[in-house]
Specification:
single chain; mainly beta; two-stranded antiparallel ribbon; 1 helix; 6 strands; elongated; disordered C terminus
């Protein structure tokens, strides 16, 4: 459902991100998943994506699980000024 919430879990210690989602820190995280289009009008179960977040006093870490290999994050611009939102673009793995 569009407009859902992801609750980031707190960690007292920083850690080095390494894409290993089997680590204890990610097993303890709150995960959200979605499989709908951006407008929420269509479901795409084969495109299921999971995301989790961990925050510390210094950083916020995100983990994504999806069938895509590349993740590009860029700040969106609205009327030539930043609106504070970030867009995420994912690229499918080539077989």
């Amino acid at each position: 459902m569009p407009g859902g919430t992801l609750a980031a879990r707190y960690s007292a210690a920083d850690f080095t991100p390494d894409a290993n989602l089997r680590k204890k820190i990610w097993k303890l995280a709150n995960w959200a998943q979605f499989d709908h289009s951006m407008d929420g009008k269509a479901n795409h179960p084969a495109e299921k994506t999971r995301v989790a977040a961990i925050w510390t006093a210094k950083y916020i870490y995100f983990a994504f699980w999806c069938k895509y290999e590349d993740l590009n994050i860029s700040q969106r611009k609205t009327q030539q000024k930043s609106d504070g939102n970030y867009g995420i673009e994912m690229s499918q793995r080539s077989s």
